[in-house]
Amino acid sequence: MPNTGIAACKNSSAATVEDFVFSGIKFSGKFSETGLAAKPVNVNIFPGLNTLGMSFVRADFQVGGINVPHFHPRATEIAFVLEGRVYSGFIDTENRILAEVIEKGEVMVFPRGLLHFQMNVGDTPATILGSFDSQNPSLLRIPNAVVGSAIEEKLLEKVFGLNAKDIAKLKRKFAPH
Length: 177
Description:
alpha+beta; 14% helix; 5-stranded antiparallel β-sheet
């Protein structure tokens, strides 16, 4: 059967409370080189979300850590700052940046499909809880999607005004491993 991104429904008579409780985000995940540890909670690891049209993420930031510019083609995201101070923003369809430092207890919404980003600007670690209006929001990180893809290097050279050596260096950094 082809993978459609839709999980099979469990027979309701076989459902248990464990299908509707998830404890996998009690603690931070493994930090990347950007200072971000993200733990997505979606239907693949939390069956209780199936058919509900929602998912979740815990994002922890080291001091100075960033969530690189990215977008979710299938979801609007709302981010709640649990701890810390996070410079958060998005770029609208007129190429305007709408950004602000949000602090503990504040939220920011990132409309579906718009490029957005976060950076911990505080002196302590920060944590954001993000909620999506899709059980499969998808995630496209701009550096990986553009430079880490199979786009012809000549095109990238022209787009960014870089030489072949610089493009090759970027490709090594952002290519899938």
